[in-house]
Amino acid sequence: MTKIRFETHRCKGCGLCVLFCPRKNLRLSDSLNEQGLSYPEEIDPDGCTGCGLCFRMCPDTAIEVQSPKKDNQDKQ
Ligand code: SF4
Ligand code: SF4
Q1: Is the C or the N end of the chain the one with fewer CB within 10 Å?
Q2: Does ligand 2 have an atom closer than 6 angstroms to the CB of 17?
Q3: Does residue 75 sit within a domain?
Q4: Contacts for 44 with CB less than 8 Å, ≥ 6 apart
Q5: What's the CATH code of the domain at 43?
Q6: How far, in Å, is the centroid of ligand 1 from the Cα of 30?
Q7: Is the pLDDT of residue 63 over 70?
Q8: Phi and psi angles of residue 50, each rounded to the nearest 5 degrees, phi first
Q9: Ligand 1 contact via 57 beta carbon (within 6 Å)
Q10: In the chain, how many domains are there?
Q11: 49 falls within a domain
Q12: Using one digit for the tens of pLDDT, what is the confidence trace for 7-55?
């Protein structure tokens, strides 16, 4: 399964990742980060296709997409 990791402290809450997710699988949080800004969270962890669009759209490199194709998947 693709894992999305958000560096919430780098997020400025612009919402671009939410807007561009083709699965509509992201939303901005009710909680706030250290700067008092909302940050993205996944709606359904199984709903992500790993397309990487959110990662590519983020102007602050606050998103990391870990594809299941990567070799670290089996490490627990
Ligand atoms: S990788 Fe694609 S499907 Fe998954 S959250 Fe990002 S934009 Fe949405
Ligand atoms: S695109 Fe980046 S900075 Fe904007 S809300 Fe998403 S994670 Fe935060």
Answers
A1: C
A2: yes
A3: no
A4: 25
A5: 3.30.70.20
A6: 20
A7: yes
A8: 75, 25
A9: no
A10: 1
A11: yes
A12: 999 999 999 999 999 999 999 999 999 999 999 999 998 999 999 999 9
